[in-house]
Amino acid sequence: MKHGVKVKLSPFSWTKVSSIVYVDSPAGTGFSYADNSDDYETDDSKTIADLYEFILKWYRAYPEFLSNPLYVAGSSYAGVYVPVLSLEIAKGIEAGAKPKLNFKGYSVSNGLTDSTIDTNSGVTFAHRVGLISDKLYNDLRISCQGNYWNSSDPDCLRNMAAYQENTGGINRYHILCLPCHYEMGISSRISYEEKEHKIDCPGTTIGGALENVNAHRRLQDRHPQDSIYCYDYSNRPVVLFNSESSRRDLHAQPEEIAGRWIRCTKRLKYRKEKISVIQHHLNLTLKGYRAFIYSGDHDMAISYIGTLEWIGTLNYAELESWQPWFVGDQIAGYTIRYEHNLLFATVKGAGHTVSEYMPRETLAAFQRWIDGAEYL
């Protein structure tokens, strides 16, 4: 226990089955920092270039790991980083970049992939899980023609107002949980713009985030006791990671150099460039690299429906259609295996941060995949 915060080892850590290097990226997040404050004004391209440079330098420093299979993985907004970075690695291998990496594939969970598909799929998801009525859904489909967030049609706008009324109090990160996850990085400073879907923290690009915050406040006003059921993402990590002992144990720079650890830093000025990375997935899988795309099936922020929609645009044949996968004798989710080494799975009961909600099942799926299984 440190400063009143108790930590314990997770029995489902991915480090039990693999060597993992976690990267605080872009510079300025977590314990990472820049010597030049101008570097805190960044974008997707610069972030990915920095990540690629980091990987090459890391392997030069630790060449004993070069023979190990390399996989790149991430979730949420890293759905942009992972396929673009993976393609940079693949191109570097083809161009003879040194050191030569033993790159095998990549994995993304509930990742932002195509901003149009991902945001629009939330309406279909809401209907499928019973958050809006059949009538409202049909009215939305007819009036918005699939373009729910950027339409100027009066009927669409009216129906979207009804949609917001029905879903505004829902936790978009996990529809069965209280709307408390704004503490993970969505603060009262959010400025939501329909066309660009901007919010303060890269990694949580979600249509309707501001409405979720306001709904949380309304719920807290009516039911203040609900707060005891919410995870405290704001205070406990800040206390833990900003202690001198934690920084020393993690080999992080002191606060006067790297700044305070904050869940969602305000010193970054981040510009999002990649509207869609579907082509990157296509290029990588056609090159023969393995891909594991999985979704918590209770996430409305980046829903599995949108993920299946963009996968469908690849026009890959299904080698094994929708079927359950198991951990022990329990159904852990559902999976589809496609040609070109593409595997998709849902994790039953999980939200946006899949391994947080269902750590046992997620570890099982990850281990089976990196061990070379073609299906779960």
UniProtKB/TrEMBL annotation:
GO terms for biological process: proteolysis; secondary metabolic process. It comes from the Eukaryota. GO terms for molecular function: acyltransferase activity, transferring groups other than amino-acyl groups; serine-type carboxypeptidase activity. InterPro entries: AB_hydrolase_fold, Peptidase_S10. Coiled coil: none annotated. It holds the Pfam family Peptidase_S10. Transmembrane segments: none annotated. Belongs to the peptidase S10 family. This is Uncharacterized protein. It comes from Amborella trichopoda. The lineage of its organism: Eukaryota, Viridiplantae, Streptophyta, Embryophyta, Tracheophyta.
